[in-house]
Structure prediction request, 518 residues.
Amino acid sequence: MIQHMMNNSDAAGSASGASSGSASSAAVIVQDLTVVRGGVPALDRLSLAVPRGHLIGLLGPSGSGKTTLMRAIVGVQVVKSGTIEVLGLPAGSRALRTRMGYVTQQASVYDDLSVRQNLAYFRRIIGAPASDIDRVIERTDLGSVAGRLVGSLSGGQRSRVSLAAALLGDPEVLVLDEPTVGLDPVLRVELWALFRSLADDGATLLISSHVMDEAKRCDRLLLLRDGALLADDTVQGLLQVTGTDDVEQAFLRLIERGKPDLRPSTETESEAER
Amino acid sequence: MNLTRTFATAGRVLGQIRHDPRTVALLLVVPSLLIGLVAWIFVDTDLFTDIGPAMIALFPFIVMFLVTSISTLRERRSGTLERLLSMPMGKGDFILGYALAFGLLAVFQTAIAVSFAVWVCGLEIEGSIWLLFAVAVADALLGTALGLLASAFARSEFQVVQFMPLIVFPQILLGGIFIPRDQLPPALEAISEWLPLSFAIDALQAVAADSESAEWITAKILVIVAWIVGSIVLGSITLRRRTP
Prediction:
């Protein structure tokens, strides 16, 4: 596993470079993105790259701009300046709408329809084959409640319905905003196993969380604070640089340092300051 | 525009409502109950003959406006609208899907309201009952279309509730129910000439009294239909895929 991560760490160096260069290896390229919400900058000249086929964790305290970044990548956020490319196309392009899956923080499904009716509707909007409904029900383990009204389900089940809807049509890029929030540990482990298997099948997953523990399951981490990127590294790399064995500690150390950047070029510099 | 998505949306909206029998019941009988109440108020006078047709224009119009604007707003707040707009869902498909679903409900609601007014409350209709029904349906559809337009503009429930007095009340006040429109001050009369509800009330009163030709009434219906189409188009344009 560690070997696996080290390999990713190597790949990471070139992926970071990808923000200025080769588009083929990156699923999402964000450059100089500035988003203003309620008069204050929610994201400030943010640049990053999300490599293809990986599980990328987007971490940061609430209010750090995670949701805004995800909305911008999906193309439903008004953007002030900067560019976002997804799969080589500008974010929000018509052609991307069938190739991306998006799960909002709240379960955005219809409470007054059954699980199956919800999925049947979204399937028709996407234009995915009818067999997809059973496939995503099985993948999200909702078979036993498929006929029930979503409003009568538990919070965890509802969020899985929302996730199931995003899996329709086998999207190449999945943007999941806190998909495991409020779930019990067993369910969380199951969902992360699902995310891993989706990435193994070639999908790119950008998953936000404020539970630092979950970070360990990601291939790479993006640490966001006050709309700026604090770190863009593998878990292993992050722990090494900060000299801890705990992601939460690593995050706190980065904040203490006050150096809002940990990309390779500045790593040594911030080390020296310590 | 895509018919599959439009019809899928209309079917989904109707499916949601079907799971809420109380809403269906309220939607279908409330206008009739209100018409019955008005008939009862004026039972000892012959005023109901004059204002009864206007009531057929009024109550379905208000009910459809409210129900439509709130339900699309609910979609916005639940996050489902954002999800749909991140999918290959056309803005026009969305608005038209809602218009079809609530339009169908409006047809049933109007059929019940017209029947109730004529056969239970004894509203005298000199002209064609079918023409009366046609005007009433157009009028209820107008309520749906304006409700969609209002919710495309509104960003919160509070705003939608404010749009109701803003968009609906002036049309009622200037529609000729309180005093005939030709007795209004000239400026207000000129404004009332343009308001869609005025056309509906004029047409319904004309059918009830059989005072105008079928062509004249059809012309009024066409103006209402133009308002419906205009509202739906404007609502589709106002709906934003990207929000702040």
